[in-house]
Amino acid sequence: MNSADDLTAASGRRPRRPSWAGRNYSLLTASAVVTHLGSHGALIAAAFAVLEAGGDGGDVGLVAAARTLPLVLFLLIGGALADRLPRHHVMVAANALNCVSQGLFALLVLTGEPQLWQMMLLTALGGTGQAFFSPAAEGMLLSSVQGEQAGRAFAVFRMAMQGAALGGAALGGAMVAAIGPGWVLAADAVAFAVAAALRSFLDVSGVPARTPGGGMLADLREGWREVAGRPWLWGIVVQFSIANAVVGAADAVYGPLVARDHLGGAAPWGLALGFFAAGTVGGALLMTRWKPRRLLLAGTLCVFPLALPSAALAVPVPVGVLCAVMFLTGVTLEVFGVSWMTALHQEIPEDKLSRVSAYDWFGSVAMVPLATALAGPAEQAFGRTPALWGCATLVVVVTAAVLCVPDVRNLRRRTKEVAVAGAPAVPGADSGSADAERPVGGLG
Prior knowledge:
Blueprint: H1 3-11, H2 23-52, H3 57-82, H4 87-111, H5 116-142, H6 150-179, H7 181-199, H8 216-228, H9 231-263, H10 266-289, H11 295-301, H12 308-314, H13 319-347, H14 353-365, H15 368-382, H16 384-402, H17 406-410, H18 434-437
Helix pairs in contact: 2-3, 2-5, 2-6, 2-7, 3-5, 3-8, 3-9, 3-14, 3-15, 4-5, 4-7, 5-14, 6-7, 6-10, 6-13, 8-14, 9-14, 9-15, 9-16, 10-13, 11-13, 12-13, 12-16, 15-16
């Protein structure tokens, strides 16, 4: 017990937060809430800014692809950099770039008629910031908690983050309909500025000093060896490289078009995205109580419902049914998300977290630019409905395929030991009984 705990015990007061929710964890959670409030509204705003400027589905796909392409190009460099430099410095610099790019995008929309190339350029700058931010942020979060309650900590973090996404999507859709997309983009720029200020207070004094490496390429090779040596890791990354691509095309391109043509515009689509976010909050809340013994088996089984939104848009179903489908998808996908973070925290050494995260992100988004860019031509060639059914089918096929990897089915939760620098991963290790895995008490 530290001195702060002693004082708390002496005064007879209950601690204000759980022992695992330290300073860094709290700052990371607060800043994630702020950015998700802004960014989920901005996703809707960007799509409708393109449509209001006279663009079509193909143009929406090009703008979405412009964001993802630099994300793919710079992710690995961002991961290596985040394992070399203080991670919070990388995060703050990336947030600053996102603030500037979104502010200029908002100014462009509010003051004139934005050209497609201008919107693509500014969106690409935002994607560049995300490429450097994501590996650093995930490494920082995974290293901010320790011990058996890591899974619960990740669930609470994701619950807060997804709760902000719920509010951001619903509010963003309503704001786009009421005052236009430009002001929503401006609000996102402000959110990035606030988040950067919060993240500047992160404390990295307790992070072990990095061992000098042999250069950027050597660092990337070392990170690749960590990924390639774990079939469960690269198998799921390959799975999501396909699933994220087709789901990204459906959400970024076909979703707004279906909403415009059949659901009544931006507000209903924002409501549907809000229900998805509400589902993720519910899934995260579930994961504060449930600790599946076979982490990745439970998580992967819960990826199958990711096919349902594309199928619902293909029909298309009424808004109420679409919202129910999105809610269910959010719940089940969050089970996977918490299980995945817990597995990475358990199996990957701290000094390699950002590089492994970068490979994870790289694989997961590598095909998204191609899919979003091809979404418009695919609609013209095959029709929107067949394209959406194709998206749903691919999600089911790749999820079934990854269950064929033995380590995905067999990797178990370890309740006592987590990976440390230089320690090998033991997929079947399990130091606790089933009873030891059950949480004691809860977080309201």
